[in-house]
Amino acid sequence: MRARKVPRDSTWQDMADEDFDIATLAAYLHLMPAQVMRLAERGKVPGRRIGGDWRFSRPEVNQWLEQRIGATDDDQELADMEATLRRVDHVKTEITLAELMPAEAVAVPLAARTRGKVIAGMCDLAATTGLLWDPERMADAVTAREDMHSTALDIGVALLHPRRPQASIMGGPVIAMGLVAGGIPFGGAGGGLTDVFFLIAATSDHEHLRALARLSRVINDSAWLTELREAPDAKAARRLVVDRDRELGP
To answer: Quick one: pLDDT band at residue 63, thresholds 50, 70, 90?
Structure first.
């Protein structure tokens, strides 16, 4: 498969390793500077004062956004967050889950019975698209993220991803999906089994957050998840994801 070219936002890409101040964080979050100031003073957003001025670490802000996405199952809140991320992305072409998750990146069933095998298998799936060039390195990064805190949710779904995007080993963003028959222990807080796995392999923090917000909305439907688990093959499972993505709209 020929790797697709994905439009990038050069403004935010050029700032990828810079800290925010009040003004730039306000622009990033699509808020007024006064709103960001109040959030900072109340300890609602991670930041610190340096010489009297507020500074915000980009990785810490993105981790805060990721935690906010993962902490809610309210679809309206997820939709609002997704809309905010879309407004500040400055990318004119929307990338759908149909494009992010090619047919070859889906396995039903995924032949894996341990955490390590699942992670390796999901990274191998992503590599079949030609967009991930080093699945072993990605697997190491995903494992390190799982060691920090499991991405397994109490609904039996895990949204795998590295702590930081691995842009140097990728030709573009890709999402892989695998269903493990019967589920396996994957470290979720509730101690239940996990049987539905998504791997989000993005090339930027913002790309990652948008994909995470969209997938969080996609899986936020118990009846749909039951239908997904009953999918007879990879083609049917992927079709369910694509249709659900389309139903949610842009």
So the answer is: confident
Terminal C-alpha separation, the chain: 26
Phi and psi angles of residue 50, each rounded to the nearest 5 degrees, phi first: -130, 115
How sure is the predictor about 24, in pLDDT bands with cuts at 50, 70 and 90?
A: confident
88-94 own/partner pairs: CB under 8 Å, 24+ apart: 88/12, 88/27, 88/28, 88/29, 88/30, 88/206, 89/9, 89/12, 89/206, 89/210, 90/9, 90/11, 90/12, 91/7, 91/8, 91/9, 92/7, 93/7, 94/250
Give the amino acid at 195.
D
CATH 3.40.930.10 fits 97-248, yes or no: yes
CA-only gyration radius of the chain, Å: 18
* pLDDT winner (highest mean) among 59-68, 162-171, 227-236: 227-236
pTM: 0.78
Beta bridge partners of 106: 177
Higher pLDDT, residue 218 or 18: 218
